[in-house]
Amino acid sequence: MTKMTKFAVTGLAAGIALAALSSTAHAQEQWTMTTTWPDNLDLIKIDQHWVELVNKLAGDELQINFRAGGTLMPGTEVFDATETGAIQASGDWPGYWAGRSPAFSPLATTTSLFNGVDYLNWIQQWGGFDLYQEVYGDYNMVYLPYGITNNESGFMGNTPIESIADLEGKRLRLSGRDQGRVLEMLGGSQVTLAGGEVYQAIERGVIDAGEFSTPGVDYKAGFSEVADYWSTPGWHQSASVFGVMINKDAWNALPEETQETLKIAADATMAWSLAWSERESTEATVKFQEDGVEISTLSAEDLATIQDATNEVILRGACEDPMHAKVYHSMISYMEHYANWRDVTVPFNMSRSIDNLPSLEEIEACM
């Protein structure tokens, strides 16, 4: 064999070895992912949208096998399963984990504070994303917010609630610690029920009224079949965030390019989810009205009273937990900063104009 031939064969062998090594280094990861939402709740579409994008954009590096909530384990167990690495990822609503840390509550929703655009702004440009990483990071997880819905429907039931005076003595299904505290200050009583139980609770009179999600989700859950009255706006959840919990070891095993792809898919899903939800809510509102559900709206004076109660609850919670205080401090700082531009764009502003916010100085004293 000539020297030239030997060189060519050696080079060919090296090329094959290098290709094999490269193939091994970039072997496709296989993830199992579930969610807190069963197939019959429309919120699962947000999870599915992200998974479909990831599988398209990162298909050579990562494929996610998605299972609906309840098919692998109860929804209450997905946090522990993701933290320990039993599964690589799970979709969630952060408020479900407020019993572990109160800081999860404002990461999920606020009472009478943020709307959907505020969450988008705060997550993308005012430091919110980093706070999700800090809170979930304490539980061995990376978190990608990928869903935003605007304010929830409000209370539906067979007892009209036309003012906050009508809340006195009422048993209302309501999710969230801070939300329950505000309701109690207004004279109502919080009843905690799983989303799938709200329909029957209204139908049987177990609760006077209830809420679950946006009009689009609530209509498909059948609420117009059991409720005659609908009280708006949904002050108790002025907007909501959803996302994916990812086990930190599984995340770190991905190449940086793939991690970036997952983030891009999350950003795209976040924008899609807000528009999708608003379209669904619009169409559902028309259907609720066609079905004869009577809609009432709280007065500006009532909403101002709710804001006062909300501010008090935020300050109380801040002094109970430093991380809870840190999240709200960031949120309220955003509201004050953004007001410099927001309030000179009325009536074309995107965010909620508000001149009665909790005191940053009082929150800082609790941090």
UniProtKB/TrEMBL annotation:
Gene3D superfamilies: Bacterial extracellular solute-binding protein, family 7 (3.40.190.170), Periplasmic binding protein-like II (3.40.190.10)
Keywords associated with the record: Signal
Signal peptide range in chain numbering: 1-27
NCBIfam families, per the entry: TRAP_S1
Protein name: TRAP transporter substrate-binding protein DctP
Gene that produces this protein: dctP
